Amino acid sequence: MKRLITTLIASSFIAILYVLLKPVDDQRTQTVQIESVVTKINKGRMGDYIIELEDKTGMFFISKANIKDVSLDSLVNKLSGQRVSISFIKPNILSRFGPMINKKQVTKLTVGCQTVFSTI
What we know:
The chain is of the alpha+beta class and 120 residues long. The protein has helices spanning 2-21, 72-79; strands at residues 31-43, 49-53, 59-62, 83-89, 103-111, 114-118.
């Protein structure tokens, strides 16, 4: 009986960890879209491109894994002072705690009708 209870508790713990830690799918159902004016673009310490928006709090970043075809200089030239539409991954429950609290991963970036960056 004791072994059964231990097995059930361990299985429940593993199932909860899986649900909380599984990767976030970057499909359209898992993204949020906002519009704002770009105030600053720079390279972060980890190699990601950081985008700061005029009236939005938090950090919007393009992951270094997705920036193979995008240069920082071209982004600065195209986006500085421009009104952009940004789609980012909805934060999961663990994103509300720790170092990821105000960081949002960009999945699509458009200026007017032109798509500048997209992972979708």
